UniProtKB/TrEMBL annotation:
This is Protein O-mannosyl-transferase 2. Keywords: Glycosyltransferase, Membrane, Transferase, Transmembrane, Transmembrane helix. The lineage of its organism: Eukaryota, Metazoa, Chordata, Craniata, Vertebrata. Pathway: Protein modification; protein glycosylation. The chain crosses the membrane at residues 66-86, 92-109, 116-134, 154-181, 202-227.
Length: 258
């Protein structure tokens, strides 16, 4: 059912047609990009569930059967993400393998990853954020090292990705936030650590976990509005001044007073 929504929105990006949706734009933009790079021309109507794709090249957006293409590829990444996360947390190979096999044979995960949906994209960034956070925690004994900076930055990137797909991604922001507060509390209680060094730790987390995700999240919308420059079904949700900037709108290039 949701393929009729998100597949259609992917087509809107390919055709540069403006639309409105309750979710942030990243997931649909990635679906549209995957379709564009794989040769989909954005002409399939997506009118109702169950319509046959016929000659339309939809394989880049949807992974069918054994073809791991975009959504299916991101869904398959959950297995190594789970393996690495559990391995870091438990230091137990059997536990990590068990977590990986549970996801490999999870019918819901397999099914969701076969279709043009936001769910595999969202889960990819959610689990990526958790893995990055755990990896960063393991580098706590090497603060400000290259690996420490890398995993801290990747945590911020994945936070932006999760929130940019669906607002439910804010839950992983909460998780990382609580982990960061606990980490900083421990550092503050370390009497061998100077206040200057504590300030550096605080600044690093502000830059990587607040400033970086906000910058990326804002950039998603900048790309969204830059790409969708033609009149479409979402015009009516915005002001007349905004509509005057859309090609094909009745108000295009008309001088609209404040």
């Amino acid at each position: 059912w949701d393929e009729t929504h998100f597949g259609k929105m992917g087509s809107y990006y390919i055709n540069r047609t403006f639309f409105f949706d309750v979710h942030p734009p990243l997931g649909k933009m990635l679906i549209g990009l995957a379709g564009y790079l794989s040769g989909y021309d954005g002409t399939f109507p997506f009118q109702k569930p169950g319509d046959r794709y016929e000659h339309h090249n939809y394989m880049g957006m949807r992974g069918v059967r054994l073809c791991s293409l975009f959504c299916a590829f991101l869904g398959s990444c959950l297995v190594p993400f789970a393996y690495l996360t559990v391995l870091e947390l438990s230091k137990s190979l059997p536990a990590a393998l068990l977590a990986a096999f549970i996801l490999i044979f999870d019918t819901g995960c397999i099914t969701l990853s076969q279709y043009i949906l936001l769910d595999p994209i969202l889960m990819f960034f959610l689990m990526g954020a958790v893995l990055s956070m755990v990896k960063c925690n393991t580098c706590a004994d090497r603060p400000f090292s290259t690996s420490w900076w890398f995993w801290l930055s990747m945590t911020g990137v994945n936070l932006a990705g999760a929130t940019g797909v669906k607002f439910v991604g804010l839950f992983v922001v909460l998780l990382v936030g609580l982990n960061t507060i606990c980490d900083l509390w421990d550092l503050l209680g370390n009497l061998s650590l100077s206040l200057v060094m504590f300030g550096k730790h605080l600044l690093a987390r502000v830059l990587c976990l607040i400033v970086l995700p906000l910058a990326l999240y804002t950039a998603m919308f900048a790309v969204h509005f830059a790409v969708l420059n033609k009149s479409g079904p979402g015009d009516g949700f915005f002001s007349s001044a905004f509509q005057s900037q859309l090609i094909g709108n009745n108000l295009h290039n008309v001088s609209v007073p404040e």
